[in-house]
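Hi R.,

Here's the chain you asked about this morning:
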Amino acid sequence: MNDTTVLGLFAVLLLAIFLLLRWRDRPEQPKRSGQKAASKRSRPAPRRKPPAKSRPQAVIDGSNVMHWNDNIPRFAPISQVLRLLESRGYQAGVMFDANAGYKLAGRYMNDFEFGRHLGIGKDRVMVVPKGTQADPFLLRYASHAGAIVISNDRFRDWLAEFPDFAQPGRLVRGDWRNGAVWLDMP
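And here is the predicted structure, written out as tokens:
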């Protein structure tokens, strides 16, 4: 297999994980107690609620956002971006280059460790394999999911392959201002 095929398969796997997470977070139907089971023929057709509007998705470029506070790698900017996005109704995940743990903690960190530090589950964090760039993974997933990307990287080297990120609103820039994260979005 060539590198493009491996990256494509990995992006599809990541997309499947995020879709499973969204499916898992759906509210359960309440169970009725004290009723006898009726046959399928005598049961009236269930009332169907209109589908709930799913939350928009966001992918945080963790290797970029961790430098927003004085260009020093820190967890605080990533944590604040997560909280800000969640307060605005987004379902957010974070993607890191393999070397991000070395920059933040002086050692390699996996999905679980990043999730623990950020106060989110490992299923919302992805550390790309060593020796590969996070950019194509991040853009491929965000493109398939229709997600916005939080990063100050403009991904110019990838726009030919992912032209939808040249559209306004798909790439959201941010900064650290007065001790807090600021995002360039309404």
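One quick note: Confidence is low (pLDDT under 50) at residues 26-33.

Cheers,
M.
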